[in-house]
Amino acid sequence: MIRRRGPALAFAILGISAVWVLILVVLPQLWMLDYSLRPNLPPSKVGGPEDIRSFANYAALFSNQIHFAIFIKTIWASALVTLLTLVACYPIAYYLAQVATRRRAATVMLILIIPFWINEVLRTFAWYIILALNGPLNGLLLGLGVIDQPVRWIDGNGAVLVGMVYAYVLFMVFPIYNAIESLDRAQIEAARDLGAGWPRIHRRVVIPHAKPGIATGCIMTFMLAAGSYAVPALLGSPGSRWFTQIIYDWFFEGGNWHMGAAYAFVLLLICMGFIMIMMRVFKVGVGDIAR
């Protein structure tokens, strides 16, 4: 950057980026951490002898069996959403990168992108209409004779999983597509000429080359799923609450920002841990993911 832009412009860009990261990322997280360590006190007692930092808010999460169970379920369900999205998107990404012609790939990409011009809440409402008791899905299945009576799809975690897989499909498709697109087709043809079947070609040639894209897609999908609020709020039933809904309730319903900050910081740590696990599993570095 220094050679191309000159030292003055390069340092200016780096300085602006550093200030941007400091103000929008580092300082808010440090403030949230400080909030999470303080008790929820009335304004008259803030700064007094009772206003001391401790891990009481974090201990409250692990001692509250209901909240802790929702936390574990959210992490497990987010991992499941990531896996389902990967399974659904890998064939699409491979088709776009190695099989489809440019015109057909552009058409499929346009079909994938156009629905995302609409707000996520509206897209989630569309799934709510589709999966409703008297919605078009039940109407179609009843008309085909597959079911005898309407099925309550929006009950439990099933609808939430479907809505999230759809909501974050692009965040999985495009990183994998970008990775597979750089793969020389001659390697696939050589493996096929040597007698390798499609499963072996993908396992030994395509997937190792696409590891950075797969890792990036999994990280983005997991973090978005774990931090999602709109999808579980609209498609979830009372018995399928998401951990983000608990955090929301602490901040805006219970008025306990300190407890909400502790819950949010635990979720942040889990997401950071997931990033480290993905980097270790796929044996990629930060530079590979940031391409």
From TrEMBL:
Subcellular location: Cell membrane
UniProt topology in membrane: Multi-pass membrane protein
Assigned GO CC terms: plasma membrane
InterPro entries linked to this entry: MetI-like (IPR000515), MetI-like_sf (IPR035906)
Pfam family, one: BPD_transp_1
Leader peptide range in chain numbering: none
Membrane-spanning intervals of the chain: 7-32, 79-97, 159-180, 213-235, 260-282
The keyword Transport is assigned to this record: yes
A biological-process GO annotation: transmembrane transport
PROSITE patterns: ABC_TM1 (PS50928)
Family according to the record: Belongs to the binding-protein-dependent transport system permease family. CysTW subfamily.
Annotated protein name in UniProt: Binding-protein-dependent transport systems inner membrane component
The species this protein was found in: Tistrella mobilis (strain KA081020-065)
Gene: potB
